[in-house]
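Run log, item B.
One chain of 382 residues. Sequence copied directly from the ordering sheet:
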Amino acid sequence: MKINNRLNNIPEYELSKIKSIKEELIKKGEEIIDFGVGDPDLPVDNSIIAEMIRSFDKNGFNNYPPYDGIKELKQGIIEYYRETFGVNLNMNEVLILIGSKEGINNLMPAVCDLGDYVIIPKPSYPVYEATTKLWGVIPYKLPLKENDDYLPNIKLIPQEIISRSKLFIINYPNNPTGAIANEAFYKEIIKFCYNNEIILCNDGAYNEIIRSGEKPLSVLQFDYKKNCIEFGTFSKIYNMTGFRIGYIVGNSQVIKAILKIKTNVDSGQFMPIQYAALKAIKLDRNYVNSIRYIYDRRIALAEDILSKHNINFYKNSGTFYLWCKVPKDYTTNEFCEELLKKSGIIVTPGYAFGNLSYGHFRISLTKDDKIIEKGLNKLDIY
């Protein structure tokens, strides 16, 4: 049987592979502590569940939803951006997605032609590179360095690549490093994209998961020409990963192009889930701050234990991840396999985020304090 040859260039999704290994070990009766996948353990707020249930009383809840999303949720996102970031959006600058992963995939054919370049930072969420290969687009991998606080150095991009690029993807707060961007960086990279007619996309999945005292930023705050786009999700801050609900905001032409693809290949997200998302985004800031406080505490606990075990890590200001260095005299594979076999601990090897990330591993702190303490104290002192 013949299948698409492009699939030969796409490795198995590393996080899916980790999940399969975990399930096999659990079947064997082994105790596993999973610090691998960024799937929050915190409960969904009761009011969100209640709103979803209430929406089953609405006429037509079981029908096809509007392709671009229910107007109430779109308006809720507009209000959220105005109140949180001081950004004014119109209805045609908001599109509801079946999770931001769907939007990332549809972004490629919406913006790029076969053979175009997309500038992608490394390390980064593996979906960015995978979707370029699915759609016949060429990824240019721009390394992120710790001594630059994992912000891309755009001066390193060759002019030949710039002239053939249509899209530049960034992700702040950053997965896997937890780095955050600042106003000066956003202004610099926006100017670069303006000057070179490149669409800038920020994957803002972790926009609200920052350390207490940090101010949430959106790339759209500095985009006076309205040429940029930004993804958002309800998965992380609202603990709604399984709901598969997200959005894209920004440049109306890009939104229109993605919507054209959506109308041809999917029918939108189940309306009760959209009403649940609307309730979530209208929760007051006390809710968001309470979630930040939990991750602040977990990060501090993990940092303290890792330091005692001589594990070096990047001191970040965002996400619920810690980006750690593999101890001396270990390869990435050797160390991650030893953690699993010796201590029953799953972490994500750095190469899951690109070949430039060997020598690192990511810890996801989506477990309660007692599990974090128990798991990380199983580590040897290196």
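Observations after the first pass:
- The mean pLDDT is 95.
- The longest strand covers residues 117-122.
Flagged for discussion on Thursday.
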